[in-house]
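Quick review question:
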């Protein structure tokens, strides 16, 4: 059983920063792509960012490009999403996900966390 647990969400003012973490535990894979997604109330889930196993490749959604940075520490089985210059429209539940196929770019994530709430006040 694989578990992904997000942390680091909270309330922040517009222009502020937050750093989300995603800890992977259980029957971990030898390699996996990690992705971050978000879903705001009444909206569909949106791709935020993804990172390859080695970290050499990253991808970002248009709405966060230049403001968010994805990273990972494989020794700790943990991924991160550094979010800077936050805007009210970034308010959402943020989910991390893992794709053990390591295909790049990933289009199918098998494992998901429960999500962490981010609220950006204006």
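Suggested answer, residue by residue:
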């Amino acid at each position: 059983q694989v578990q992904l647990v997000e942390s680091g969400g909270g309330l922040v003012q517009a222009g502020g920063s937050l750093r989300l973490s995603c800890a992977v535990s259980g029957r971990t894979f030898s390699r996996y792509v990690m992705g971050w997604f978000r879903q705001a109330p009444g909206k569909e889930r949106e791709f935020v960012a993804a990172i390859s196993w080695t970290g050499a490749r990253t991808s970002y959604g248009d709405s966060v490009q230049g403001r968010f940075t994805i990273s990972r520490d494989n020794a700790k089985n943990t991924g991160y999403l550094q979010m800077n210059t936050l805007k009210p429209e970034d308010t959402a539940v943020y989910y991390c996900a893992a794709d053990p196929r390591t295909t790049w770019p990933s289009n199918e994530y098998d494992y998901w966390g429960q999500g962490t709430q981010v609220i950006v006040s204006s």
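Why it works: The CA atoms of residues 68 and 83 lie 4 Å apart. The two ends are 40 Å apart (CA to CA).
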